[in-house]
């Protein structure tokens, strides 16, 4: 599996400099687009995490920005004339519940009791855009593909539950990832 995007620096609309209409409670909530290519033909479901390892010195843990599980590949649009057969469109996080209700999104770090900033599901169980407070940060988008849905994951799951389900799924998931930069 190959993951790519049309940028290496997260565009303003999806990050710290997002316009007010792209924010909820001050948090950027419009997810950025990316592509999934060279997908193993056996893959029927996609799952991903977007995390910020550079947040560890700032807050003491890796910040979770977005997680998704059990997204059926067949529910996504294919354009076989496009060099990228499978595209995750901009603002997918907010559109996902209505478009593909069987896919679920996990909690991001805004839901942490240690942060205590937010309890709105539209903020804590969706994409939470990059807002590095100290310097530019590198974010990692890791995507896995499996033949079957991962059991036991409901809306608002925690990232450790996704990782455990991937380890216990009984197959070696197809996977890929990219690093992108968020500007301070």
TrEMBL record:
InterPro entries associated with the record: PEBP, PEBP-like_sf, YbhB_YbcL/LppC-like
CDD domains given in the database record: PEBP_bact_arch
Pfam families linked: PBP (PF01161)
SUPFAM superfamilies linked: PEBP-like
Coiled coil: none
Lineage: superkingdom: Bacteria
Family: Belongs to the UPF0098 family.
NCBIfam families membership: YbhB/YbcL family Raf kinase inhibitor-like protein (TIGR00481)
UniProt-recorded name of the protein: Raf-like protein
Protein's organism: Bifidobacterium goeldii
């Amino acid at each position: 599996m190959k993951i790519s995007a049309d940028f290496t620096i997260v565009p303003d609309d999806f990050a710290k400099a997002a316009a007010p209409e792209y924010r909820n409670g001050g948090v950027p909530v419009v997810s950025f687009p990316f592509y999934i290519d060279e997908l193993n033909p056996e893959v029927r479901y996609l799952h991903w995490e977007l995390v910020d390892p550079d947040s560890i010195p700032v807050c003491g843990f890796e910040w979770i920005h977005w997680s998704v599980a059990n997204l059926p590949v067949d529910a996504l649009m294919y354009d076989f004339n496009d060099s990228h057969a499978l595209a995750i469109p901009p603002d997918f996080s907010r559109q996902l519940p209505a478009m593909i209700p069987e896919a679920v999104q996990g909690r991001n770090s805004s839901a942490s009791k240690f942060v205590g900033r937010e309890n709105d599901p539209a903020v804590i169980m969706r994409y939470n855009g990059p807002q590095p407070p100290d310097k530019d940060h590198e974010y990692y988008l890791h995507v896995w593909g499996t033949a079957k849905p991962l059991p036991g994951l409901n809306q608002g799951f925690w990232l450790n539950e996704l990782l455990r389900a991937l380890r216990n799924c009984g197959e070696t998931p197809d996977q890929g990832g990219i690093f992108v930069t968020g500007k301070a």
